[in-house]
Amino acid sequence: MTRYVSKCAAIFAAAAMALMLAGCDDTTSDSDAGMESSSFVGSYSTKDTQGNDMTVTLDEEGSATGTQGGDNLTGSWKAEGDTATITWTDGWVTKITKEGDGYSKTAYKDGKEEGSAVPAEKK
Fold first, then answer.
1. 115: left (phi over 0), alpha (psi -120 to 50) or beta
2. 37-70 pLDDT, tens digit each
3. CA distances from residue 2 to 5, 7, 29, 91, 95 in whole angstroms, order as listed
4. C-alpha–C-alpha distance, residues 9 and 1, integer Å
5. Mean pLDDT score across all residues of the chain
6. How far is 21 from 67, CA to CA, in rounded Å?
7. Which segments show compositional bias classed as Polar residues (predicted)?
8. Quick one: which of 117, 105, 112, 106 has its CA closest to 45?
């Protein structure tokens, strides 16, 4: 009888753990936040804070690549409502925001906005 109760307790504990882990999944989809992240996937042509040409490419897995003044950029991105926030490995953050039928780009260094928003054209 004790062995039976121990086995039942172990099964119950395993089931409770499985339910708890399942509850840890993020149930908020990007569409609930205003825009699906897949809508940001693609390449953008824009300008950097000095007015030089800049490209940004966002892939489906959350990786970001780009070019700026001949330098290659790498980082990661995530959708936050109507904005894709890109964190570059050099510490800069770029935000591409959907505005009506177009996009704009803003840049941040050390949490402070650098320059002003500029258009970003999705290719």
1. left
2. 789 999 999 999 999 999 999 999 999 999 998 8
3. 5, 9, 46, 59, 61
4. 12
5. 82
6. 40
7. 36-55, 64-75
8. 105
Measured CA distances, 9 to 3, 12, 21 (Å)? 10, 5, 18
> Residue 38 has what pLDDT?
81
> Residue 2: what pLDDT?
59
- Rounded CA-CA distance 83/106 in Å is 10
- Where along the chain do its domains lie? 37-122
pLDDT of residue 3: 61
Between CA 87 and CA 74 the distance in angstroms is 9
CATH class of the domain comprising 37-122:
mainly beta
Residue-level pLDDT at 55: 98
| Structural tokens at position 86 | 């890109």
